[in-house]
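Morning, I've got a small favour to ask if you have a moment. I owe you a coffee for this, so here goes:
>
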Amino acid sequence: MISVRNRIHIRLFVVVALVCLFIVVLWYYPVPVLTSQLHGGALMKVVVTVYYEALCPDSKYFLTKQLLPTFKIAKSIMEVKLAPYGKAKTKEHNDPLLRLEVATCMIMDNHSPQEAMNKCTSQINFDDSVIQNCFESYRGVDLLKVIGESTNSLRPPITFIPTITIDGSQGRQESILKDLLSEVCKAAGDSREVKDICKI
């Protein structure tokens, strides 16, 4: 039986490690900021933001059964932002698929966060010492604080984890949780690319 104190430490490690992973990957592979509107004839992507907890079974289900499969199908029309903070409280690569696969890998087997991070980063041949250094630094705590502020500023406030926004809107949570691809397709518009992906 794991003590409450150890569970808190495990959760904190998982959250900070995931935050560090996303920041490190973004540092090496920057992703342009995108929206779902057409701008100058170019398709702008639907922004899906997932506010989740690394040890939450509902979050695990959503990442593995909805988010990753949807992204693999519709990556050209959507951008994914992950906020691994959930209902926590705090005190004062151009490859989003890589980030999503590592997060999904880690959430699938996170009882030993350090081992999960090592296993998942080795599967993609990524140096996990960069993530570990971020985790051990003040930068990791600062990043967690920023994600926490973003999570806590959601209106309406989070009542269920995971909470997903599509282009900043929390509307239709039940539908988003059950059929993310359909909801992304509705938000993406009706370009030829969207129709091909969504089979409209």
